[in-house]
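job 3f2a | input accepted
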Amino acid sequence: MKVSVAMAKNKLPKLIRAAEGGEPVTICRRGTPVVDIVRTKAPTRGKRKLGTLRGQIQILDPSWWKPMTRDEADAFIEGRD
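job 3f2a | predicted structure (81 res):
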């Protein structure tokens, strides 16, 4: 299948589906072929592995998520001057 750049912009999802089905798609600029869209042979990214950072992250302050007290907030603001 040969299509113009303008048609490719408007019909890209349809062209991708055609390429997935095994049909090579050629995009032409002013009648000259410039790009071929073809189905890849294999996925470029493997499956994700969960838990790969287990044991590598150290939490220094287990209460880091707690809100500041009024005194901590005042000291923070005073330190910004």
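job 3f2a | The mean pLDDT is 88.
job 3f2a | closed
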